[in-house]
Amino acid sequence: MIRRSLPALLALALGACAQQGQGPDPSVMQLVEQRQAADLDARAAGQHYTDRLQRMFDAESRDTQWADRFETDLRRAAEGVLSPGTLAAVDCRATRCMVEFAPDAAADRQQAQDRQQAQGTRMSLPASAGLLAWLSAAQPCGFYAPAPSATDAPRPVRAWILCEDDRQPARAAP
Amino acid sequence: MSRIARVLAMTVVAAAVVAAGLALPASDARAELRTAQHPGAGCIAYPPYRNDVAIPYQFLLFGIDQQAFCHIRIDDEMPADDIHVVFVYGSNVEVRLCLHREGDWVRCGSMRSIGSARSMTWVGPPYDLPSTPSGAFLSVRFVGGLSLVDEYDVLWSIPE
């Protein structure tokens, strides 16, 4: 409720301030503070979550047959789709994989073309959007990834493929 | 939505639940079920800036290549974390349900397929989320020639 109503409340409060020359309504400011606190909590929870995924991943022993095949299929799925070097690391265990995308290089080829086409409209997509689309198309398991940001990532982007429910092979590129 | 349309929608969804062999969890025995129907034409094709990926026509989305993202309307009465299942009607598509919290994370479930015959599949939400999600969408991949997304119906199970 608070999250979705906030922009309207802010606009209302700022509009009221401009009209009356007063500070924002305290109740609105309280909502703003609640929203900021919720965002901080969510960020901390996200960090805990990725730490937990890392621990679970580290604790999982490698099922060589499955892991080798999944890694090979993932790399094959990246060929011709992601720019060379984008897929910086792939490491699978028994039910989970860690995938790391290189910073800046993290753009797919299609996206590079899209960016050129979009120059006329002065719009471009962040590379992370392409990575998410690739992750969704390249393999059948569930996954967790950071949300796409408005700018290219200054650090490597790490995502997790979670195949606990269905250990199927990744899809190879056609 | 009119009352008649609502009853019809619930009937269709109930039939789909039975057809898919889905059951509500025991903890949801006292939950209120709500549904919302979304036309395939509301999906957004990916990559953008291209007109050879998908064509929305009336209420349908014809998929040609690549992917589409189909967003689910979320509001206070039907929040993202209470989504129970989404029924997808179409052909030649692979689909998964993703939940997200804007600016923080995206968590997607595993993929399910619909073959060349126009039919239905269902996707459930991913388990084990980092924090409360703020939104939800379907990630759709077009496979095998011309694909189609007719409609996707969301079933919420709201705890009472």
Amount of beta strand of chain B: over 45%
- SSE arrangement of chain A, N to C: HHHEEHHEE
Helix-and-strand structural type of chain B: mainly beta
- Report the biggest beta sheet of chain A as strand number plus sense, adding barrel if it closes: 4 strands, antiparallel
Which regions of chain A are unreliable across 5 or more consecutive residues at pLDDT < 50? 167-174
User: In terms of quaternary structure, what is this?
Assistant: heterodimer
Number of helices of chain A: 5
Low-confidence stretches of chain B: none
* Alpha-carbon distance between the two ends of chain A: 45 Å
Largest interface by residue count? A-B, 39 and 31 residues
Rg of chain A, Å, rounded: 21 Å
- Dominant shape of chain A: elongated
* Radius of gyration of chain B, whole Å: 15 Å
Please give a structural write-up.
The complex is a heterodimer of chains A (174) and B (160). Chain A is α+β, with helices and mostly antiparallel strands. Chain A is built from five helices and four strands; from the N terminus they run αααββααββ. Chain A has helices spanning 2-20, 26-59, 64-78, 109-118, 127-138, and strands at 87-92, 96-101, 142-146, 157-162. A four-stranded antiparallel sheet of chain A has the order 1-2-4-3, with helices on one face. The longest helix of chain A has 34 residues, at 26-59. Chain A is elongated and about 65 Å long. The N and C termini of chain A lie far apart (45 Å). The radius of gyration of chain B is 15 Å and the shape is globular. In chain B, the strands form two sheets. In chain B, strands 1, 3, 4, 6, 10 and 12 form a six-stranded antiparallel sheet that branches. In chain B, strands 2, 5, 7, 8, 9 and 11 form a six-stranded antiparallel sheet that branches. The relative contact order of chain B is 0.27. The two termini of chain B are 22 Å apart. Chain B is 11% helix and 46% strand. Chain B is built from one helix and twelve strands; from the N terminus they run αββββββββββββ. The longest helix of chain B is centred in the first third of the chain and has 17 residues, at 3-19. With 160 residues, chain B is mainly beta. The interface between A and B is medium-sized, with 39 and 31 residues. Strand 3 (142-146) of chain A pairs antiparallel with strand 8 of chain B.
